[in-house]
Amino acid sequence: MKILVIDDQRSARRVLNLMLGDLAGVEVVEAGSLSEAQSTAEQNAFDLFLVDIRLSDSPTDRGGLEFLRWLRTSGRTTPAVMVTGSTELAEIRDAMRLGAQDYVLKDELCPEMLLPIVEGMRERMLLKGEVSRLRERVEGAWGTSAMVGSSAVVDRVRKLVERVADADCTVLIRGETGTGKEMVARALHQTSNRNAERFLAVNCSALPGTLIESMIFGHERGAFTGAVRRVRGQLQLAGAGTVLLDEIAEMPIELQAKLLRVLEDRRFRPLGSEEEVELRARVVAATHVDLKQRIAEGTFRQDLYYRLNVVSIEVPSLADRREDLPELVHAFVAQLPRKLRFSDQAMEWLLARRWQGNVRELKNAVERLALLSEKDEIDVPTLIELVGEDTTRPVIEIDRVAHAILSLPTKLGSKLDVIERAVLHHAIEMCGGNKSAASRLLGLERKALERKLERFGTEGDASGEEEPLNRTG
To answer: What is the pTM of this model?
Structure first.
């Protein structure tokens, strides 16, 4: 703790220095005039100022008050305590109005008077630092900085969240299962001016209609069978915070009408209550299904869709942000007590895999490796053993081949004919000219294969004999 003692009397500064010397971890700096105090405060960072009201022999001097006024106008928030010989209540009152935290009269100055005040200031400073660190941890866990990835699509989501964070409009978050829709909702809350209030999430698919209605809006005692006491709903418990209605597409359609009215009127009535409650919270909805398709099927209200979809945030799938995968893997490993390493080939294997469960599946895979892998260096065989072969990898390879074919020169003619002719030729060649074997390899009927061979003028074996069904020796 660094303290600046401001007093024109050297003896007074020495006494204060001796008293503060009894405190561990305290550094004392002295200033004998207003100008010296201002210069020293500008060049150094202090945790506390001990200031005399008068900083010269002149009876009209109020240098200490001028220092307090200078602190306020310069925007500094360092606390100040008056240690003064002045007993005029008007001067002490002026010091408190200018921001002094406390005062001690020099006639009463002793360690028992001063040190508890300084210790209290130190504890307040430490608590303030702890609060600041906790806020940084919360921001790191749930703010936009928690949205791992440097791809353009993630950066677009991050910027949109920051742009609409302080708006009071409803937000609809859409994306595949496992993409991190709730994380985006939490980032929206944490970035907003509502972050001091609560963030509550309701899974609309987890409970039947009556219980979902009670969870969202609350109920009075006796409102329905089993309602033995009054319960406040999430919309009320959140205060002025944020309520996420996850899987909004699964909300019963009769409850959708009530939600629509609440969003429009900003008031709601708990089940069994005669009194309305003001809606202060912001409502955010999330879904992984196509709501327009649900509207066409008659299971989702179109007017509620428009009310929820004031701002829409699309959370990209992992396939759309594949370049973020190494960064995600390293972020997941950093959260684990065991620090895994991935070989280059292992990372390529992860990149090639199609993660249908998106980021959630990838995180689960990393956690499984940390629990079950016998070595810290993860290689491809370990991935195959503990994560499992990717049954969709052939589809990825076909996609790659198709892209390569479409990049061929147009002078080749029909690209479909080119690839079909090549596939037929290689199938016949691989099967030693046997059409029956080639048709099985291609997944075609033999007659369909012969028609294609005739079309392209490709020949199989001369005899076209069937391969024996049973071979011995």
So the answer is: 0.59
Q: How is residue 199 written in tokens? A: 């963030």
| CATH number assigned to the domain comprising residue 193 | 3.40.50.300
Q: What percent of the chain has pLDDT over 70?
A: 88
Residues 6+ apart with CB under 8 A from 290: none
Cα–Cα distance list, 473 to 386, 466, 470 (Å): 39, 18, 10
CA dist 465 and 463 (Å) reads: 5
Residues of the chain under the 70 pLDDT cut = 129-143, 390-405, 407-413, 458-473
The predicted structure's pLDDT at residue 240: 94
Decide: helix, strand or coil at residue 172: strand
CATH number at residue 21: 3.40.50.2300
Q: Are residues 182 and 243 in the same domain?
A: yes
Query: In sequence order, which residues have a C-beta less than 8 Å from that of residue 141 and are 6 or more positions away?
Result: none
Examine residue 439 and state whether it is found in any structural domain, yes or no: no
pLDDT in tens, 162-191: 999 999 899 999 999 999 999 999 999 999
